[in-house]
UniProtKB/TrEMBL annotation:
The keyword Hydrolase applies. GO terms for molecular function: hydrolase activity. Residues 15-222 form the Dienelactone hydrolase domain. Keywords: Hydrolase. It holds the Pfam family DLH. This is Dienelactone hydrolase family protein. InterPro entries: AB_hydrolase_fold, Dienelactn_hydro, Dienelactone_hydrolase-like. The keyword Hydrolase applies.
Amino acid sequence: MKGTRIKINGESNYEGYLAVPDSGRGTGVIVIQEWWGLVGHIMNVADRFAEEGFVALAPDLFLGKTAEEPEEAGKLMMALNIAETEKILARAVKFLLAQPATEGEKVGVVGYCMGGQLSLFAAATNPQVGACADFYGIHPNVHPPFANLQAPVLGFFAEHDDYANAAAVAALDAELTRAGKAHEFHTFPGVHHAFCNDDRPVYDGVAAGRAWSRMLEFFRQNLKA
């Protein structure tokens, strides 16, 4: 791993994983976990951002807990304290912007699965978020206040997804359109939920690579220092 585990704002209960580019400076990005927790895959995503010149912070929303099986992961997701999660995300944004390595006055936020919905929530509750990427976001108890959303949204979805299905994507698209919020959605044909997770059998390298490239372009366009 390229990065290090850190305490967020000195809060003993709030930790995360911080990856800094070799240059020592870069635009900040918050990386939000899937329902598995802050596992190796998410830390690797933060490392990949650092390799692309970003300062990436992945906060630990499950406070040290992780899961290996879907049933266990689902229980952790449904037990998530949304009020505390909002506080963790706000502190993560503030912490990242305060880092000497972070350039600019705003950060990007990206999340996968559960984290995708939370990326929308973080963007709508933190005006310091300048761009939001949502990968097949889902969480039934998270309702972003889109009226407050200032950042443009980039969404990636799968054709075959029992969680964020076509109807759910269409509903989100309509909600953002009604609210007058800038957004761009892409649905990849033939792939399944979590197609970007290379630790899972549903991983699709072609679709994941295309989404990654478009996301980097999106962040670089909207987060210029």
